Amino acid sequence: MTHPVLDFLKNQGFSKLQVSKVISSYPRVLLCDPEKTLLPSFELLSSIGLSSSELVAIVTARPKSMLSKRFQDMCLECFDYLKSVLGSDEKVIYAIKRFPLALTYDLQVYATENIRILEEIGVPMENIEAMLAQQPRTFLTSADKFRQVVKDVKDMGFDPSKTRFLWGIHAVRAMSKSTWDKKVELYKKWGWSEDEIYMAFEKYPGCMMASIDKITRILDFVVNTMGWEKGYIVQWSIVICFSLEKRIIPRCLVYQHLAEKGLTEEKDGFCFTKWLMYSETKFLKWVKKRYEEEAPELIKLYKKHLAEANGSNPSTLRMKVAI
Hints:
0% strand, transcription regulation, 4 domains, mainly alpha
């Protein structure tokens, strides 16, 4: 015997596991009339530009909020508020897709005051708008908590007029204090001072958003395998944001191969912006252009390291190249 709510969810594309999660989180959904209560919410979510898979994902994550009678009004209010700040339907849809659960918040309560706090300390409105579209969840906390985060980030040396200031806020907001403290202690174990940690964070906030495991593995490789000095890593802390297996290991080992053959120019140093900052396509084009004769060999070597890195332990690669 089937149940109308279960049939409805299945027809909307929910897997058995997702249906189970919805029922476990919100058992009362089984008492709903699918056509009168559930369907209008699904139609509304679809009408604002969410795909079926996105719709299923957000309902599974927060079914009580998404399937409540209040949701439809809240959703429209959220959409209208975001449009009043961002200015266009396209930007609103982008923001919602970035963080669909924003639709379950009263943005007039959460976002308005926090935006005012930022404006008061000189954060440009265009920066605020960009962050609201890119990371709406950054703003979704009480004004008291948000004000404290803003103060903490300023105290770390961030300039409110710069885009990095908001990314610093986002990074601090994205983790608990205990997680933040664990990452600070991890960097200290690698010999970094607190000032150096804050300097690295100010340059590239993402260096504190990487997982503890990722930070450990990257530092192990660039210090113990490549021989990078601490000061260099602090200056280029963006390296912590890159994929170890897909970018750092294969590119560094190709550079190492060239260095051993004397084919790197000392005046260029490691040439970080080209070796690690370039996209995959641009990197390959640059290698082919700069090393025309060696290019076929280098590309083959690069692909070999790329394949091996995804299954290797970088701590076993102990060939060093001094920066």
